[in-house]
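Could someone model flavin-adenine dinucleotide with this protein?
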Amino acid sequence: MSTSTNKQHVVVVGGGFGGTKAALMLAAHDDIHVTLVSNHTHFRYYPGLYHTATGGTRAGARIRLDNILANSGVHLVRATATKLDREHTQLITDDGKKMDFDQLVLALGNVTNYFGIPGLQEHAYGIKSTEEAERFKIHLHQQLLETGAPDLNYVIVGGGPTGIELAGALPAYLRHIIKKHGLPQRRLHITLVEGAARLLPRAPEDISQAITKRLRSLGIKLLLGVTVQGATADELMAGDMTLKSHTIVWTAGVANNPFFKENDFKLSDRGKVEVDEYLQAEPGIFVLGDNANTPYSGLAQTALYDGEFVAEHIIRLAEGKTSAPYKPKQPISVIPVGKGWASVEWGRHHFSGFIGWILRSLADLIGFHDLETWPNAGEQWLESMEEETLKCPHCGIPSGKKNTAQN
Ligand SMILES: Cc1cc2nc3c(=O)[nH]c(=O)nc-3n(C[C@H](O)[C@H](O)[C@H](O)COP(=O)(O)OP(=O)(O)OC[C@H]3O[C@@H](n4cnc5c(N)ncnc54)[C@H](O)[C@@H]3O)c2cc1C
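Reply:
Sure, complex below.
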């Protein structure tokens, strides 16, 4: 159903990597009107969250969507999509509004999955949003101030990129705040728990080995091949061990957004949406990024690539042209582990060290530029490298520049 202006109406759901990219590209076409439905006011730059959780600014991990979309022609609607009415080609949102569409693009991202493990949801911290990262950071300060010493153990569950990045950055941040609080430096106990026999089980073995060595050199204890059974406020039960800790971070599980199951999409064994060679789940309904069952789903670069592919395909359809089918593209993987070091998997080339760190920094700049103009991306990039300057809510550690952004 077309809008009264005879433009095609494309509704994009999800203001993340894939959805925002698709919306911006589609809106640049004269014959297409785009509505972007997002349940957040900000775009979340997930790769920056480990840094926000360990002293970096919130600004480095989020950008206001209305800034990204300024002058783009995209109509932004703040709502949660709840239901798909296939018969009337309408999307229904949590406020009961119904939106007609000609084409629908769904890029809703993943949600945290605790696999029903008792106590985790209540007692574990996460770093999947700036709010979660802030909550974790406040806890680190609070725990230090209440006891005058570091926690008995800081336990991170999940040997994927998020857990590794957080574990790598944590020792330096803890030492920094211990010093700032005027407390004596003590030996830190930081443990990374992974259920598989090695870190990054899907990555090449040499990458996994280099990261293992690096984490051990930073003093991180690795528990590999150990699965978590449960958590309480004071401990984590993993394998046949009980780890005393008030600081458990869960980074080990994600599941596809429940929207797809609730709306009867065809799902793969992994719970991802089955799509055809144009990333189409059904005629006129495209699914991309983390939600789609594609080989490299689960990475920001894939979501951007998918967003671009779907936008180009819809534009070509609007122009009465055909397009080439989707070709999965292996992203470059760069995982920072502590300051000045990152591992890189670039096709067949694998390397690590300071050069990897520089590459990651440049990748962030390019990542911001994927959605913003060069001047704005540059500003965002510089800001992302700043340290957190907000006052510690408990001790009033000097703050400096105040970040007033709200979500
Ligand atoms: C902590 C962390 C670190 C990461 N680091 C890296 C990295 O270094 N490199 C890398 O390549 N990848 C990384 N990733 C993965 C990467 O962020 C994702 O693959 C990418 O965000 C997927 O993009 P997407 O568009 O599919 O979904 P998202 O970017 O998650 O966007 C989905 C958006 O949809 C919104 N939404 C959800 N449901 C609804 C609804 N019903 N209605 C309206 N809006 C909705 C969400 O709030 C969100 O804004 C990381 C992920 C995490 C959690």
